[in-house]
Amino acid sequence: MFEGREPIYVQIAEQVRAEVLSGVLGEEEQVMSTTQYATTYRINPATAAKAFAELVDEGVLYKRRGVGMFVAAGARGRLLAEHRARFFTEVLDPVLAQAAVLGITADQLARHIRGSAADSSAADSSTTDSATEPEGDAR
Amino acid sequence: MSGYPVAARDLTVRFGATTALDGATFDLPAGGLHGLLGRNGSGKTTLLSTLAGLRTPSSGSVLVDGVDPFENARVMGGTGLVRESGDLLSDASVRSNLRLLGDIRSTWHADRADELVDLFRLDRRKAVSALSRGQRSALGAVVGLASRAPLTILDEVYLGMDAPTRQLFYDLLLADVIEHPRTVILSSHLIGEIEHLLERVVILHAGRVLLSDEVDALRAKGVTLTGAASAVAAAVDGLTVVATRDLGATRQVTVFDDLDDARLARARSAGVDLGAVPLQDLFIHLTGEESR
């Protein structure tokens, strides 16, 4: 837990955002209090409070006085839009840079992407298959 | 009650020809769980004794809740210093010691002390001198937690505990400071297990304050870069390097500096792996022999 390089409060906020994105935390669902969070994950309460304050500022969570903190309505949609926008620059661009270093062409990439997209829609047993590199593919 | 803020200003303490503290300056805000980190002989115990009002500075000052603690009945009464050696009557039983503490400490919670003695499975009838090192440490933790002092100072108390007992202690400490907010200073040279519990840390080295900052901020400044020696060398150019290791053609460099994301992104695209620097490693690098 919290092995990353970022400050702990950034990692906590990111973890909550990921849970909202994946739907593990539903909208209007109550989240752990900072106290519960601090004791469960054994972290400083001020650090947990800072993460939750940031999520409230962003509109991912909101406070109900005396009750606790909840996932805001529309939070998932907003996070989806932001993460989609960032996906190309933050996730895909480094992959493409690495592909360029390895001399993998755009055609090969496109074929791989279409292949795994077809696999995952065609069969539910293809999850390990789509992760293998082209050379390892014996079919 | 949310605890006493603590400050040191150019604090110097000399014993004859020895300078134990040499111009130490730092601030710890009220109501947090903070760490004091230093190697053996770095001045930790001298600093904590001065904060507890047990000795006077040779020059400079300390402020506890805004006042000089030396011979100040109010803040000395509100400060609980627990040392590993234990400031207890060693020939008296655990029970008598706890009763005595209840008589002299206004903030003492006898019920809490009783619960903690059970949780740590201490034998109330045993004399303190008959306890094992681990049991004496646990008794120190009981005293520190049950005193609920607005400034609670635990000087190396958990070093004698075994791993499961330390975990129990961390959990109890965290729950206790959340429920009864106060200022707690944990001092040690061993902090790998507690770095996430701490809000701020003061690192002492040879009587000087090497660092005083939020643990999260220190974390953001530390990074290890691992990769081809030339790529790593280019990535760390101009940054403060605290450790370098060469493993064949691969170099691993630990940096402690203000880091900008663009530089790190460039390093990553040049094939350099970035990793976190645990506080304990940073401490070792900053206070190790090769850095002084």
From TrEMBL, chain A:
Keywords on record: DNA-binding, Transcription, Transcription regulation
Source domain of life: Bacteria
Domain HTH gntR-type per the UniProt entry, residue ranges: 6-74
CDD domains given in the database record: WHTH_GntR (cd07377)
Composition-biased stretches (Low complexity): 116-131
Span list, region Disordered: 116-139
Regions crossing the membrane: none
GO molecular function, one term: DNA binding
Record-linked Pfam families: GntR (PF00392)
Cytoplasm in keyword set: no
Record carries keyword Protein biosynthesis: no
Entries under PANTHER family matching the protein: GNTR-FAMILY TRANSCRIPTIONAL REGULATOR, HTH-TYPE TRANSCRIPTIONAL REPRESSOR YTRA
Name used for this protein in its record: GntR family transcriptional regulator
From TrEMBL, chain B:
Name under which the protein is recorded: ABC transporter ATP-binding protein
Transmembrane segments: none
Keyword Nucleotide-binding: yes
CDD domains associated with the record: ABC_DR_subfamily_A (cd03230)
Keyword Nucleotide-binding belongs to the record: yes
Domain ABC transporter: from-to ranges: 6-231
PANTHER family given in the database record: ABC TRANSPORTER, ATP-BINDING PROTEIN, SKFA PEPTIDE EXPORT ATP-BINDING PROTEIN SKFE
Gene3D superfamilies associated with the record: P-loop containing nucleotide triphosphate hydrolases
Keywords: ATP-binding, Nucleotide-binding
One annotated GO molecular function: ATP binding
Native source species: Cellulomonas fimi
